[in-house]
Amino acid sequence: MKQDLLTFADWSPEDMKALLSLAVTIKNSPAEYASALAGKSVVALFEKPSLRTRVSFDIGINKLGGHMVYLDSQAGKLAGREDAVDVAANLACWADAIVARVFSHETLVQFSQAASVPVINALCDKYHPCQALADYLTLYERFGKVEGLTLAYVGDGNNVTHSLLIVGALLGCNQVVVTPAGHEADGDIIAKAQSIAAQTGATIVVSQSMKDAKGADVIYTDTWLSMGDDTPLAAIKDTFAPYQVNESLMAETGASYVMHCQPAHRDLEITGSLIDSDASLLMQQAENRMHGQNAILTHLLSS
């Protein structure tokens, strides 16, 4: 029976730890997995533009011995041209897996129902599971563990926030989410993360105060406006300015490192000098997108 990855919310802590371990192994011993996808083809369908996701999947699949076919959906949404269920069913006739970067999570649900091959969420409006796996792989490499660490996310409560919460809770990583009023993470997803954390011993703090980030091992931020959001920057800049991640915040919290999923807007949500500092993990995160995704592909296509 095929397995999809739309979100890690339905995974067990044991399975999440095993996937992280697989990512570590694949990164450290790439030659052993050079044929993991031999003879297999993966379709990558993107409604949204991408740098890291597209390139890391393309090169990563090649390193596993597979072949990727990129479809940009004519640089727009699927809606109006062909029903999502028909697109997925057709792709499954030829491909061994479908990677989809879409506007709506519902599109992925329809893909999952219609496709007879694994469907992987490469980003939607609710989740970004591939990013979260890469991020916790990065933390594992820096600290030698994930369990017991504290990650403080500062900024807009969005798809990245949601996946960080879920994967962090599964791995026993304490979570602090600090957002401006009106920009909180989804309440149902927070509740799901809290229920997982109750099993693994992780703590979850949701706040509007930067003071609650004190004591975090790592500070994480993302853009103030998600891709596709046409809200003028001027309309939200004053709201988010107090939540900028900068050298002062790092000193006040005592955090060792800063993370950002990119693309980053220098001197808006994060200072350019911090991006370029020794505390920055941004490029390690970007590199680990490929290794995390290769673990996902290897797991799903060998199950």
TrEMBL record:
Q: Which UniProt keywords apply?
A: Transferase
Q: Which reaction does it catalyse?
A: carbamoyl phosphate + L-ornithine = L-citrulline + phosphate + H(+)
List, for all copies, the residue spans of the domain called Aspartate/ornithine carbamoyltransferase carbamoyl-P binding: 4-141
Q: Which residues form the Aspartate/ornithine carbamoyltransferase Asp/Orn-binding domain?
A: 147-299
EC number, UniProt record: 2.1.3.3
**Gene Ontology molecular function:** amino acid binding; ornithine carbamoyltransferase activity
Keyword Iron assigned: no
Cite a single GO BP annotation.
citrulline biosynthetic process
NCBIfam families, sorted: orni_carb_tr (TIGR00658), PRK00779.1 (NF001986), PRK14805.1 (NF011380)
What family does this belong to? Answer: Belongs to the aspartate/ornithine carbamoyltransferase superfamily. OTCase family.
The name on file for this protein is Ornithine carbamoyltransferase
Annotated source species: Alteromonas aestuariivivens
